[in-house]
Q: What sequence folds into this?
């Protein structure tokens, strides 16, 4: 039974208590059932977590306070017998030392008090993990340059599946950034490279991260070794996808190919959704907030000049169950009939079942009923209450009611009572009855229309049934009505300009007034749309400014002036350029023309004066161009036009724009793509030429026709050629559209024969015109003679000079020199040396000492290499590897010379015999060597001049194999006593010597002295040697 007959409602998932009681207020004296404020959520517990516990939240508001219990997989948890793992803290469930084998499952919280129990939504506990990659070495991936490659990630076992993938190159943390050539699938983790290049060589590792458990691992490195062209093919393919309304989904598509293919997306059975986004160079298509209309077949197309490939799959859009009609709290008389009904929408169709006290029921009964719909956390509840006397405790009559003069007001009277009470009203002491202005509703409410000042006063509602009676009183006040004093007026506007809409109103001074604007029935939110709308402040003014007006701002603007009591409205039209035409479609398609049809859009209150038609083709997908029409000017009352001047066998789409006196509106949506009919080509290849090539060949070249001029399928070229002095043309067919050359091989063709050539295009529909005729020559014969008088001259153990007599044939372009170690290396071991026909000798370096080499020389031209001439040579033994040993350095008493003595070098058996010794002297005060002198082998000492400063002496052996290792010693010179010249005298002498040198050069400018130098280089060399001599003399003077 309900105490004092009081009833109430609670918006929670409520289950009946065994005793039917009905809480009516939120204070603890009356009490109420549990209402959840916090419910458990799905939890993923990392297996390696250092915090060995899981906390599931549960908190409910109730009076008296609720008691909690928890269920695991539908079974109540016994906290006494399972205390090792489960404990209750408040309403929260704490799982200590979680065990994957015991604690995975679905949990729910039950909160109960004397008024009933509620069951929380279910929460799933799972254990997350991410194992390490296998320690086995990954095999190298070898791919030819220009081909595509796939590096497999093969992620280790894991849960959950929300992994993210990146790839490292060579070392951490060098990560690969996705480009149009590289793509990392976030579905499989694989790395796709559409075209492998030499710079891709390296070691790659797949880096896997699990955000749910905050852990990352990476694989063993996979070597990629770039090692011929291929067509495009799609390797990353999105699968059949199911999504819920409102979700975001991502489709992935990537293709391999050379050239790098371009990825395009489309919806086969319609346009791509407006809320789509393409990223990663076309590799991903994102659909935001998917709706039912986004369902359909999606296609990604990969296209390059070699071909194209595509992949299609379906997207299915479903929806979680949503209540269309649910039950609500109500009161019924004891013994009366009552039917509760609910309807839910969803895709697939949801199954609805009922719960009472948390248990499924198949029939309706008294008490508290709660029901849920499968696959949704939404729950609805209702209460059935027993009889009670009327009470206004929870819903008294409003204490102060305001109504505008001549307005309408309804004073609510909603007591709690069962059975339904009888209602009466009074104003002051006057009992009210229904009249032309006053009505008492069956529900108890009082309605007054055309209110006047005489209606002000105190109004009391009386409610009475068999169990008792109650009343509640409120006051009614009359305010001045709100009136529009300045209404907005119709206005014209040009796109990009500002427009103003005025609105002002008078109102009751005791009330606040606000102005609300709407456009075509939709309220304008100034805060959100502040980029284009601005309110002009004023106490009784609601003027609005439309900034930088766009086409979508045209329409009917309504100003609503409202107070807490009443509101009034006034409207005006903002006229703008016309709206986009609709239903653009194509008919009567020909090779160079078609008929376009459309439907007129809204003219925005200004008649349309003309239409413009734009097009774009497959070669310019982002560039809309003006189409040529017949007639040239399309009148504003037309809904069709003929488009001319199109290119045959080309894919087009069209759009239409409308223009009125206020400007041109937005373009229509593009028409479906169409392809014009085929036609014979009219453009001939250009830049006809050729010649050269191998012997007995005729090479013909041209610049191919651009694809937009193919005009049809099966496109190719017809190549015609004939000797210049003959009349009959010979023709061949080349079926490759992008071919640039044809090589005709014929053993009967004489070398350097003059030919006339021309080329034309053809396709399935016919042949086009020939190009201009060009004159070319057949290939030369290879040189028939080998070079003669081949000689070699060793320069050192590693260098030789090779010379020969030129081949006296006019077609020789140059010479090829090859060399290799006899019986050790192959002929192709070293890169050949290519020389012009003016050269008849070359210097070959970096040879191996004391080795036998084969040297080969051939003449060559465009046709190839002539016969070889070979010679066998032997390089000298290497110079001694040991330097001379300096045994003494003695300065003479005056310090003007120093005597350097050394021991002879004894060469090894495989080293050259010592012929001379080379002594060099350098000073830190002189820019170059002061002395370079060679001595016979018998000499083992030398006197060298010394001056102040630090001197470096070098001694090395000289052999036929070159200079040997160097011995070096540093000596510090002192000021000589014989040096009687002052610093000033040194400077004077140096200046005079330099002056004398330049005087000689100046006086010799008119004689042939300077012209003895055969080149500017020799003259420069002589000048530099003179400067070097002067500097050395100056150093000796010091």
A:
């Amino acid at each position: 039974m309900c105490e004092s007959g009081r009833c109430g409602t609670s918006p929670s998932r409520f289950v009946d208590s065994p005793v039917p009681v009905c809480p009516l207020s939120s204070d603890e004296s009356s009490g109420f059932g549990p209402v959840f404020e916090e419910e458990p959520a799905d939890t993923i517990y990392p297996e390696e977590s250092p915090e060995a516990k899981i906390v599931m939240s549960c908190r409910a508001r109730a009076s008296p306070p609720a008691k909690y219990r928890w269920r695991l997989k539908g079974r109540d948890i016994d906290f006494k017998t399972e205390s090792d793992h489960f404990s209750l803290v408040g309403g929260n469930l704490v799982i200590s030392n979680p065990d994957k084998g015991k604690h995975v499952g679905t949990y729910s919280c039950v909160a109960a008090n004397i008024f009933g129990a509620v069951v929380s939504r279910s929460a799933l506990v799972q254990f997350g993990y991410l194992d390490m990659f296998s320690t086995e070495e990954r095999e190298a991936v070898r791919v030819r340059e220009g081909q595509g490659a796939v590096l497999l990630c093969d992620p280790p076992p894991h849960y959950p599946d929300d992994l993210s993938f990146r790839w490292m190159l060579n070392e951490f943390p060098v990560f690969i950034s996705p480009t149009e050539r590289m793509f990392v699938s976030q579905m499989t983790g694989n790395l796709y490279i559409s075209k492998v290049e030499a710079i891709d060589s390296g070691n790659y590792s797949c880096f896997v991260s699990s955000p749910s458990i905050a852990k990352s691992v990476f694989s063993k490195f996979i070597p990629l070794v770039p090692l011929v062209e291929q067509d495009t093919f799609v390797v990353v393919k999105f699968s059949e996808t199911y999504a819920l309304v409102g979700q975001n989904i991502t489709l992935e598509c990537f293709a391999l190919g050379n050239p790098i293919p371009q990825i395009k997306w489309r919806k086969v059975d319609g346009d791509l959704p407006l809320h789509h986004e393409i990223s990663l160079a076309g590799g991903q298509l994102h659909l935001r907030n998917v709706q039912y209309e986004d369902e359909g077949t999606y296609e990604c197309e990969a296209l390059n000049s070699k071909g194209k490939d595509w992949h299609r799959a379906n997207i299915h859009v479903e929806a979680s169950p949503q209540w269309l009609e649910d039950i609500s709290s109500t009161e019924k008389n004891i013994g009366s009939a009552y039917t509760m009904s609910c309807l839910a929408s969803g895709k697939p169709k949801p199954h609805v079942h009922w719960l009472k006290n948390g248990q499924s029921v198949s029939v309706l009964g008294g008490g508290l009923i709660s029901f849920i719909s499968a696959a949704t956390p939404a729950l609805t509840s209702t209460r059935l209450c027993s009889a009670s006397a009327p009470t206004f405790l929870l819903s008294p009559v409003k204490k102060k009611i305001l109504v505008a003069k001549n307005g309408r007001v309804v004073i609510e009277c909603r007591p709690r009572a069962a059975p339904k009470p009888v209602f009466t009203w009074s104003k002051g002491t006057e009992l009210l009855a229904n009249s032309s202005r006053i009505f008492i509703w069956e529900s108890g409410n009082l309605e007054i229309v055309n209110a006047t000042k005489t209606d002000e006063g105190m109004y009391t509602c009386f409610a009475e049934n068999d169990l008792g009676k109650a009343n509640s009183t409120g006051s009614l006040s009359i305010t001045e009505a709100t009136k529009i004093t300045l209404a907005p007026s119709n206005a014209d506007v040009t796109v990009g300009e500002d427009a103003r809409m005025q609105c002002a109103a008078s109102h009751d001074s005791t009330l606040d007034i606000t102005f609300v604007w709407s456009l075509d029935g939709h309220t304008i939110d100034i805060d959100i749309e502040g980029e284009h709308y601005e309110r002009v402040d004023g106490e009784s003014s609601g003027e609005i400014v439309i900034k930088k007006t766009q086409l979508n701002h045209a329409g009917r603007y309504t100003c609503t002036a409202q107070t807490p009591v009443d509101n009034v409205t006034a409207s005006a039209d903002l006229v703008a350029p016309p709206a986009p035409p609709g239903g653009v479609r194509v008919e009567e398609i020909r090779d160079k023309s078609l008929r376009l049809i459309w439907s007129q859009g809204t003219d925005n209150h200004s008649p349309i004066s003309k239409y413009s038609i734009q097009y774009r083709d497959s070669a310019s997908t982002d560039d809309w161009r003006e189409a040529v029409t017949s007639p040239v000017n399309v009148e504003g009352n037309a809904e069709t036009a003929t488009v001319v001047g199109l290119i045959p066998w080309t894919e087009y789409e069209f759009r239409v724009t409308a223009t009125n006196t206020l400007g041109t509106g937005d373009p229509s949506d593009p028409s479906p793509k169409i392809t014009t009919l085929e036609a014979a080509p009219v453009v001939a290849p250009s830049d006809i030429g050729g010649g050269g090539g191998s012997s007995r060949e005729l090479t013909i070249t041209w610049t191919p026709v651009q694809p937009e001029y193919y005009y049809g399928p099966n496109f190719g070229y017809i190549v015609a050629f004939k000797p210049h002095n003959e009349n009959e043309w010979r023709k061949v067919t080349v079926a490759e559209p992008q071919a640039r050359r044809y090589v005709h091989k014929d053993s009967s063709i004489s070398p350097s024969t003059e030919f006339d050539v021309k080329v034309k295009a053809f396709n399935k529909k016919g042949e086009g015109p020939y190009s201009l005729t060009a004159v070319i020559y057949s290939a030369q014969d290879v040189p028939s003679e080998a070079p003669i008088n081949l000689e070699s001259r060793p320069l050192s153990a590693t260098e030789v000079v090779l010379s020969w007599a030129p081949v006296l044939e006019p077609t020789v372009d140059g010479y090829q020199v090859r060399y290799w170690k006899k019986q050790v290396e192959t002929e192709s071991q070293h890169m050949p040396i290519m020389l012009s026909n003016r050269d008849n000798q070359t210097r070959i370096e970096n040879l191996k000492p004391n080795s036998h080499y084969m040297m080969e020389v051939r003449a060559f031209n465009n046709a190839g290499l002539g016969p070889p001439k070979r010679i066998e040579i032997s390089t000298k033994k290497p110079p001694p590897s040991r330097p001379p040993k300096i045994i003494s350095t003695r300065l003479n008493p005056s310090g003007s010379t120093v005597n350097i003595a050394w021991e002879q070098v004894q060469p090894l058996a495989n080293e050259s015999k010592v012929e001379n010794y080379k002594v060099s002297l350098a000073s830190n005060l002189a820019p170059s060597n002061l002395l370079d002198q060679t001595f016979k082998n018998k000499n083992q000492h030398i006197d060298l001049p010394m001056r102040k400063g630090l001197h470096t002496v070098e001694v090395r052996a000289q052999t036929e194999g070159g200079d040997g290792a160097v011995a070096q010693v540093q000596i510090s010179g002192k000021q000589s006593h014989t040096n009687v010249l002052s610093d000033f005298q040194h400077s004077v002498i140096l200046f005079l010597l330099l002056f004398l040198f330049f005087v000689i050069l100046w006086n010799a400018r008119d004689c042939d002295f300077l012209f003895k130098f055969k080149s500017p280089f020799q003259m420069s060399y002589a000048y530099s040697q003179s400067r070097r001599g002067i500097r050395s003399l100056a150093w000796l003077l010091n």
Summary: The longest strand covers residues 307-325. The two ends are 130 Å apart (CA to CA).
